[in-house]
Amino acid sequence: MDENKRLNRREFIKKLGVGSASAMAMMALDPLKVIAGPMEDGKAPRQSAHNNMTYRVNRHTGDKVSLLGYGMMRLPMKAGQIDQELVNKEVDYAIAHGVNYFDTAPVYCGGKSEAATGIALHRYPREKYLVATKMSNQNQRLWDIDKAKEMYHNSFKNLQVDHIDYYLMHAVGGGGIENLKHRFIENGLLDFLVEERKAGRIRNLGFSYHGDVAVFDWLLDHNDKYQFDFVQIELNYVDWRHASLSKEDADAEYLYNKCEKLGIQNVVMEPLLGSRLAKLPAELAQQLTSQRPGKSVASWAFRWVGTLPNILVALSGMTYMEHLEDNVKTFSPLDPCTEAEKALLAKIADSLAGYPTIPCTACRYCMPCPYGVHIPENFAYYNEAVNSHVLPLPDKNAPDYAERRREFVNGFRKAIEESGRADQCMDCEACLPKCPQQIRIPVQMARLVELTR
Fold first, then answer.
1. How far apart are CA 369 and CA 390, in angstroms?
2. How many whole angstroms separate alpha carbon 154 and alpha carbon 158?
3. What does the angle CA 420 – CA 421 – CA 422 come to, to the nearest 5 degrees?
4. What is the pTM of this model?
5. Would you give the DSSP letter of residue 137?
6. What does the pLDDT look like over 385-434, one tens digit per residue?
7. Cβ atoms 213, 174 nearer than 8 A
8. How many C-beta atoms surround the C-beta of residue 335 within 10 A?
9. Which residues of 168-178 are buried (b: 16+ CB within 10 A; e: fewer)?
10. Closest CA relative to residue 166, chosen from 74, 118, 230
11. Is the peptide bond before 271 cis (omega within 30 degrees of 0)?
């Protein structure tokens, strides 16, 4: 641990109002009871929930971080706007049950997630939560360092904080090495972020990765210079060995192992693969629910991720309270997967790799479409049809061909409003550089058009 990080840690403990030795001893017993009491001025509700949350220790700062992290990308909406009252309610529940890691970005929820996150969290003492946000400078306009710095400083204002616990270079990999150099290296932006870490305004510096593995390798091969504190990767029991089957990406096993060898902990995104691992085909889901009656299919995916020792946080975008409640149960405390359970999930992953689904995670980075196509909704309907065995359609001469085709087409027309259907795609390719999964979106839209004629 370098001198700056030791200093920041001392300052962090100093804020607790207790001596270092006493604080560390108390944190070992119950981390949140030390760093997280309810505010005395009544801004945040007093909570008395029993906290059995599983924590991991950040090896750089000593923070005890909830293994379940709250992804603030898909916040609840009301009348077209973020439902702040419900966001506050869900954050209250999360904090009461031990969740202390909240992940947002300037581009989430139409650019409004940071502010909503700041409103919800500011009602609590700063020491009660760890906040993560990102340099979302994918737009070429933001390659200018002054404009990028403006985004950086706006994050502090939106989140109402004087330091950011986890700061990421957002979605590196898309566009390859040249894109990385334009966004972060040649303009001096990464050097600026390193200096901000030294100054204590950033406590941990890392990056989130999608796309060209050469970018991932380049950054880690230069880790001696940049000293990344964490790396956020897409990781789940399917992508562990099957990510490269569906996109120009490396398998998660490779990403995880390289980070682990370098001593860099991982934050996990897409542990449910865009909710697809919570909605398995019935015959696969039954294999899981029969072994753990009363436990959700989603809980298996979270348990698998949490079993890996180098994982610091597993993020979940919990729009609905029932998802939050279920995930809290899964991690309070975590019941690690046995070897037999891991083998079962590996077999299910092999089966899923053979399903002709589209690897969309509903991140919505592709939106809005210039022509109004509801891209994630089109793909979600298609994938559901595959999982329910409506697709693929049999040979045209098969006795059930007409019935299954009619079921698919009628369902598609009910699920997707006419102005947002696949046939509105004009093949402009504006979506292609935005998709972290490297999906050839216009090609897939053309397939849907053929299926629905």
1. 28
2. 6
3. 125
4. 0.80
5. -
6. 888 888 888 888 889 888 888 999 999 999 999 999 999 999 898 998 88
7. no
8. 15
9. bbbbbbbbeee
10. 230
11. no
